[in-house]
Structures are given as C-alpha cells and as structure tokens.
Amino acid sequence: GTVYLAETTSDLREQREMLRRDLLQHGFAVLPAEPLPLVAEDAERTVTELLTRSRMSIHLIGRNYSLVPEGGTLSLIELQHELASARAQQNGLLRLLWMPPGLQIGDERQRQVAHRLRCRDVIRPRRDDRRDRRGRRYHRWKRHRARRHPDWRRIQRAAHERLFACAPHRV
Q1: In whole angstroms, what is the distance from residue 112 CA to residue 59 CA?
Q2: pTM score, whole prediction
Q3: More confident residue, 114 or 75
Q4: Which DSSP symbol is given to 164?
Q5: Of 13, 62, 104, 169, which one has the fewest beta carbons inside 10 Å?
C-alpha cells in the first residue's frame, strides 16, 4: 500500500524521518518523495494528487506553526490536513493524526490549529497503569474505524514502535 506521510515542522522532523524509514522497511510506499512546492496552488495540486494515490495519511502535529505557502492563507500543516479530510469524506482515505504527549505550544496560531484538530479526530495515546518489563508504560490507542483496514495493523505497529515505545522526543 501507499501511505501519505504529511510534511511536518522542524520539532518533529526526526520522528517523521524515523517513521518514514520504518514504513519503508515494512513494505509501504511513502509519499511525498520530494519536498512540497512553496506556492499555494502548486502545493494544493501536488498534495491532492498524492493523496489520490494513497490509502492512508499520517499527520504529525508539533509545537511550531508551519510555513504558509506563497499566495495561501493556511499553513502547510493545515492545508495537508484539510485536503486529507476532504479526501477521507469522498473516498474513505484512512487518516492518523498524532500529537506528542504533553505537547506545550507557545505560538497562538499553532495553539488554535492544534485545538481545532484535537476537537475533531486526533489520535493520542492514553496511558494506563500497566508497565512492561523495563518499567515503561503501555499505551493504548483510541479506536476508530480505520483499524479495520487491512494494512492498519502493520502501520499501527510501525507508528507505535517508532513514536511511543522509543519516545526520543519529549515536549
């Protein structure tokens, strides 16, 4: 399958690259392969075309506000999310939105973006009191309809291993 791994801000770039490598190792094609255009119309056209070729999109939401493409009003993060939302409603694109646990946002614009996404369909790990042999807490995923997708388990496992178990980035 093909996964659209949305561009993110610099604070989550390392996690995005690790997740990208894991998805590739699990046999997924990962889009975009090249940086997105910096002109709003071109970026919108490119993202729409890439989402059309994808079965799932993954969006990492961090503490920094993303750049706004030239001639646009939405940040690149918002643009990708809005186009993925539209594609999900039309053709059933599966989406995964992730924010680091304990995310502290200083920029008011990004705080508003995160709040809008949080109120809609973001997936956040919920902690319980169980721990593994190393003393780390287990995480449970909030369930949603995408878990029935044939590739969902493989994508979830790759994302979980990279984003939650290793936890190299704490905000």
Answers
A1: 16
A2: 0.71
A3: 75
A4: I
A5: 104
